[in-house]
Amino acid sequence: MPALNVLFLNPLAERHTQTITNMIPDTSVISCDLAHAPEYIENTDILVAWGFADIRRLYLAAPKLKWVHALSAGVENLVFPEIQQSNTILTNSRGIHGIPVSEHVFAFMLAFTRGFNLFIRQQQQHIWKRVEPQEIHEKTIGIVGLGSIGREIAKRAKGLGMHVLATKRTATTEIFVDKMYPAERMNEMLSQCDFVVVTLPLTEDTKGLFRLEQFSAMKRTAYFINIARGAVVCQPDLADALEQGLIQGAGLDVFEHEPLPAESPLWDMSNVIITPHVAALSPHYLDRAVKLFADNLLRYVNDREMFNVIDKVKGY
Questions:
Q1: Which PANTHER family does the entry mention (predicted)?
Q2: Taking Cα atoms as reference points, which of 110, 93, 194 lies closest to residue 149?
């Protein structure tokens, strides 16, 4: 195979370039932003971008392009008609997010059960007032969409003495899951959970999946946590569910519109913790992403089965 030209739409440190060239020495690696990418795209064989990047025009100007890789797990903006109808390979970085995202999920859970969502507000007002704390030990967590992130959450939940339920499109035997539910029985699972964590990809099937019906199926003492994609949830229905007391609280890292609009009622709810889409962030993120890409590049060059190939019709 001739030398490959790889274009990263993200800054790289020297160690990242070396990780790739140590694996495949003849590879040419260029990194730049989207604005300067047209300077290099004509000779690009492999494009590496974030799943939220709008690369459609760039893609149409790339006659040699054979493979697009997402630095993220989500590929929602990379699945457009032209790439769907082509032979271009599309892969993502699924598998590298489990550690930071699972830690973020448990930060939400522990903050709620120990009352930190209230204590922080009281501290700002110089109020000394106790709130009765709870434990997550022996509570039930429901993971909606058991993929690589869901498995990391399940593993940590088991370590903290929790009961673990999960939904998955295709049933599998999972060492850290007590009971698995098919997607069509999700509401049945929701009714048993003290914490519901959404880890689904955003597809046509999952868009707006959580509505008032799902929140009504949950315990009134349950907490809802979304670290997936904001559009999986009907946000006005979530706000209504919180205001009506259908659920006890929500930990939200993702929103349908980001940044979350200033007029959103979620900002001022004491039973809501908001983080600005940072659950997957880590100082080790790019190191892991580049290592995954380099491993996949070796497979590509040797014509071996690649990791994380996306079904471009399904979008995941």
A1: 2-HACID_DH_C DOMAIN-CONTAINING PROTEIN, D-ISOMER SPECIFIC 2-HYDROXYACID DEHYDROGENASE NAD-BINDING DOMAIN-CONTAINING PROTEIN
A2: 93
Question: What's phi and psi for 166, nearest 5 deg?
Answer: -155, 155
152 is catalytic: no
Stretch 111-122: mean pLDDT: 98
Q: Per residue in 175-197, pLDDT tens?
A: 999 999 999 999 999 999 999 99
229 is catalytic: yes
Pick from 27, 28, 32: nearest CA to 11: 32
Catalytic residue check, 211: no
Question: Rounded to an integer, what distance in angstroms lies between the CA atom of residue 262 and that of residue 308?
Answer: 37
What span, in angstroms and rounded, lies between the C-alpha atoms of 40 and 51? 20
Domains of the chain by residue range: 5-96+283-301, 98-274
Which backbone phi and psi does 83 adopt, to 5 degrees? -75, -35
* For residue 25, cis peptide bond before it (omega within 30 degrees of 0): no
Burial of 282 (0-12, 13-18, 19+ CB in 10 A): middle
Residue 1 has pLDDT above 90, yes or no: no
Catalytic residue among 69, 104, 151, 229: 229
Q: Same CATH fold, 98-274 and 5-96+283-301?
A: yes
Range 5-96+283-301 classified under CATH 3.40.50.720: yes
**Bridge-partner residues for 9, per DSSP?**
none
**CA-closest candidate to residue 265, choices 286, 236, 287, 294:** 236
Catalytic entry in 56, 114, 163, 277: 277
Catalytic position from the list 42, 258, 299, 304: 258
